[in-house]
Amino acid sequence: MTNYPSTIPVCQLDENNFFVGMTTADLDPLEEQQRYLIPRLCVQADEPEHRTGFVPQWNKGKWNYVEDHRGEVVYLKKTGEKQTITALGKLPNDVTICAPLPFTEWSEKAGAWVDVANADELRLQDKREKAGVLARSQLLTSIELQFGKNKEELAEIAERELTGDHLIKVRNAISEAQSFTLKNDDIWDFFTQTLYISADKLFALWEEAKLNP
Fold it and tell me: What is the pLDDT of residue 1?
């Protein structure tokens, strides 16, 4: 009489035939011949090999390996929106694993994020908006320390070089404003175009002025 093992290893699958793990099948005690009671969603096969980034799937009597990106963060090429992959399979064609930088758009030709046409302008505007607010005394003190021009001299330059609404807004800001912000186009133009302070130097002055009480 042949003695058969009481159990054999079998591969357990999910509803979509993806490998879940190993389990056992019991020998059928009612059969005289070798017959095992294979549990539902199980197949008698060798355990699939482990491949990083793939999940084994039983298909037509053999193991196929399906890409597994679940949990990975990707970005929509059209909008740059961040998403997390939840389904098995290859990455969709409309996403990339590369995170976009501000003011860029996806280029299929380059296979990368590239600057939009006015990226430099947008970055400068963004930097101006994030510079924050300075009290009038903080800014005027820094201007005088670095450029030797006090409030009265700045007002004289404005009167001499500016006209119309631009003059009125700059003059009033120098004389009466409680605070300054680089988002203000009149103030920005006065410093960069009338006083010829470069953007980089103005941003540096702005940060230094924040340290002054």
Answer: 53
Q: How many CB atoms lie within 10 A of CB 194?
A: 16
CB 19 within 8 A of CB 11: yes
d(CA 10, CA 14): 13
Helix (H, G, I), strand (E, B) or coil at 121: helix
The phi and psi torsions of 158 (rounded to 5 degrees) equal: -60, -45
Neighbours of 119 (CB within 10 A): 15
Distance CA 182, CA 192 (A): 11
**Cα–Cα distance measured from residue 60 to residue 171, given in angstroms and rounded to the nearest whole number:** 82
Please report the beta strands in 133-205, taking only residues with DSSP state E, as ranges in sequence order: 133-135, 179-181
How far is residue 200's CA from residue 213's CA, in Å, rounded to a whole number? 23
> Could you tell me the pTM of the whole model?
0.74
162 CB contacts (<8 Å, ≥6 apart)? Answer: 170, 171, 190, 194
**168-173 own/partner pairs: CB under 8 Å, 24+ apart:** 173/136
Q: What is the pLDDT of residues 42-51, one digit of tens each?
A: 999 999 999 9
What is the Cα–Cα distance from 213 to 203, expressed in whole angstroms?
18
The answer to whether residues 202 and 192 touch, using CB atoms and an 8 Å cutoff, is yes
